[in-house]
């Protein structure tokens, strides 16, 4: 690093290494020179000459700043000093946490050594940006210069997964997740693989993520310049497809959205798919369910359905009975379980009546929530499945109109399907990025559920399969430890005071923990493996619409949708042309 640092980049002298405080190879204090200043997150460099070894360059980040009157003895002296009756001098000092030593001779800086503000190549070397082969722009530092994420720790080369924590509505977790995706796709770090890389985003709050392909009408010149500083175009996502559940009580399968009128497709599962793929456990996807004895009944019934349910004109036929809707299927299962003659066949001989009744109550309660997602009245051959491999580069699955149980079902089944598809492919390319908010709901620290098992699988094996999880949550302390631990990148926005004291945020220096309580929207603290200190960055305002009121003109690509390009006769049912009733 010393050879790469030009003299022109070290002319900004800001102080000298303090001699009244211990200096160590990993941390030291700098006295700030009169007329200069250092703020938190500034990057500085100093050098020490060693006999027979040449100079050692020590670079670091300011992690604390203090100011005091030198010459004052009592608290009240401040008034006398201000009046000029007591001589004293104001002295500022900054705590520096070392980020890089080059060459790696870990010696303390010499007291009195000149400290420079690092700029240009010196700053890039101090923050290890010069060692990053894949530099993903993630925002700007406090000095206004770009800050980068090491793509090797995101794409699975040396690590994977991102954990984003912060207060809902203030920490802008989802905004940062989408900006990070945009930067990955548009910065060129993926090379030719960027064309085939996919993103799967679950939208759980409002319809804010349904307009990623619309330009932001509030975009101004300053924001455009901020994108240019990062080497990115200030444009919306170019290729987006939106999926939404069918409207309740709508036999035509119309997507349940209100603000976006084009480019939205319905998703659902047929009764035959529900039985064949054994999706019943995802109806019981709450972590509390796994602690109940009726989970044995769940798996037994799912196996029975997979063995005996036969497709029948959009629905299924079991034991000669045709079932045309999810409520019909539920009633049929409950009837068989309450019948003493068939209970053993469906649930097993060792299951008592109380356990069966508990299962039946839970299953009956799911009819209202899942009836519009599991269908027997819509054509099986009509495109209705969420398949990222056949979708746009960014696939948005809208869940905000669904109740909690239905949201869990959709998330669990979709992740299971996509992960199994990647397993069968046997290769990490192309990459699949999964953005999931409210991770603490789907993978809580305590308990177990089918969704949690899928997410754990992604966290532990997804790197090798090219599945990258970008999880967001208000409280990382309530998320399964193994998921947080396997996240190479950890991001923190505005935090609740009680949450900030948790050990999950031990990677934040004390000053950053305090600042996280005050962080404004758009400010994030990013921790990555090859930089010892989390970087405080600000990412620019989204160039895409984040709510309907911001949406500019709709791109022509939104006119493409599965619904609009489908065979109009396919929606009538699985009948031949001769059977069409008109």
Briefly say what this structure is.
The protein is an alpha/beta fold and 582 residues long.
Structural descriptors:
alpha/beta; six-stranded antiparallel barrel; 27% helix; elongated; disordered C terminus
Number of strands: 23
Overall geometry: elongated
| Range of helix content | 25-40%
Structural class: alpha/beta
Q: Radius of gyration from the CA trace? A: 29 Å
- Strand share of the residues? 15-25%
Whole-number average pLDDT? 87
Flag low-confidence runs: 1-8, 561-582
Total helices: the number is 17
Calculate the terminal CA-CA distance, rounded to whole Å: 78 Å
How are strands sequenced across the largest beta sheet?
A: 12-11-18-10-19-20-9-21-22-23
Biggest sheet record: 10 strands, mixed
Topology:
Elements: E1 13-17, E2 27-32, E3 43-50, E4 54-70, H1 77-83, E5 89-102, E6 114-117, H2 120-126, E7 135-140, E8 146-150, E9 162-165, H3 173-186, E10 198-203, H4 221-229, E11 240-244, E12 264-266, E13 269-270, H5 271-276, H6 295-308, E14 310-312, E15 315-318, E16 321-323, H7 326-338, H8 340-347, H9 353-365, H10 367-370, E17 374-375, E18 394-398, H11 404-425, E19 432-436, H12 439-442, H13 450-465, E20 467-473, H14 481-485, E21 489-492, H15 497-500, H16 510-516, E22 523-527, E23 535-538, H17 562-565
Parallel strand pairs: 9-20, 9-21, 10-18, 10-19, 11-12, 11-18, 13-17, 19-20
Antiparallel strand pairs: 1-2, 1-6, 2-5, 3-4, 3-6, 4-5, 7-8, 14-15, 15-16, 21-22, 22-23
Helix pairs in contact: 7-8, 7-9, 11-13
């Amino acid at each position: 690093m010393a050879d790469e640092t030009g003299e022109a980049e070290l002319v900004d002298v800001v102080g000298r290494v303090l001699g009244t405080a211990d200096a160590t190879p990993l941390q030291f204090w700098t006295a700030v020179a009169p007329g200069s200043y250092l703020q938190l997150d500034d990057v500085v460099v100093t050098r020490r000459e060693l006999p027979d070894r040449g100079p050692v360059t020590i670079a670091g980040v300011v992690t604390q700043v203090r100011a005091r009157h030198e010459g004052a003895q009592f608290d009240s002296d401040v008034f006398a000093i201000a009046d000029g009756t007591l001589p004293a001098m104001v002295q500022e000092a900054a705590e520096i946490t070392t980020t890089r030593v080059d060459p790696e001779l870990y010696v303390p800086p010499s007291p009195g050594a000149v400290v420079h503000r690092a700029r240009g190549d010196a700053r890039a070397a101090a923050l290890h940006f010069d060692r990053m082969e894949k530099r993903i722009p993630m925002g700007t530092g406090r000095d206004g210069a770009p800050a980068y994420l090491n793509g090797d720790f995101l794409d699975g080369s040396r690590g994977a997964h991102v954990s984003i924590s912060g207060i809902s509505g203030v920490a802008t977790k989802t905004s940062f997740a989408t900006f990070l995706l945009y930067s990955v796709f548009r910065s060129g770090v993926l090379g030719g693989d960027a064309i085939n890389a996919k993103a799967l985003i679950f939208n759980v709050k409002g319809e804010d993520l349904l307009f990623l392909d619309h330009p932001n009408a509030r975009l101004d010149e300053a924001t455009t310049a901020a994108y240019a500083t990062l080497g990115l175009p200030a444009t919306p996502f170019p290729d987006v497809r939106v999926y939404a559940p069918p409207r309740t009580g709508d036999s035509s399968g119309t997507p349940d959205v209100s603000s976006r009128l084009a480019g939205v497709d319905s998703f659902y599962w047929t009764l035959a798919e529900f039985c064949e793929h054994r999706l019943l456990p995802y109806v019981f996807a709450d972590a509390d369910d796994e602690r109940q004895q009726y989970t044995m009944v769940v798996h037994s019934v799912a196996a029975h359905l997979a063995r005996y349910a036969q497709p029948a004109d959009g629905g299924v036929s079991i034991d000669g009975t045709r079932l045309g809707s999810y409520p019909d299927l539920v009633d049929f299962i409950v009837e068989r379980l309450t019948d003493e003659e068939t209970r053993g066949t469906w649930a097993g001989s060792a299951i008592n009546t109380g356990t069966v009744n508990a299962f039946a109550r839970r299953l009956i309660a799911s009819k209202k929530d899942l009836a519009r997602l599991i269908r027997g009245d819509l054509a099986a051959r009509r495109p209705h499945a969420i398949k990222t491999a056949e979708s746009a580069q960014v696939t948005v699955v809208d869940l905000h109109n669904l109740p909690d149980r239905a949201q869990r079902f959709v998330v669990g089944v979709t992740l299971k399907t996509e992960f199994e598809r990647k397993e069968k492919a046997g290769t990490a390319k192309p990459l699949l990025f999964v953005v999931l908010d409210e991770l603490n709901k789907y993978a809580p620290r305590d308990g177990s559920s089918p969704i949690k098992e899928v997410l754990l699988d992604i966290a532990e094996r997804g790197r090798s399969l090219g599945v990258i999880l970008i999880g967001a949550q208000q409280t990382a302390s309530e998320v399964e430890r193994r998921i947080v631990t396997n996240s190479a990148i950890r991001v923190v926005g505005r935090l609740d005071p009680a949450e900030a004291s948790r050990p999950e945020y031990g990677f934040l220096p004390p000053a950053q923990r305090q600042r996280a309580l005050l962080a404004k929207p758009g400010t994030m603290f990013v921790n990555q493996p090859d930089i010892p200190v989390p970087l405080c960055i600000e990412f620019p305002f989204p160039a895409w619409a984040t709510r309907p009121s911001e949406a500019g003109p709709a791109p022509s690509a939104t006119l493409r949708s599965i619904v609009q390009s489908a065979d109009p006769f396919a929606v009538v049912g699985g009948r031949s042309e001769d059977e069409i009733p008109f």
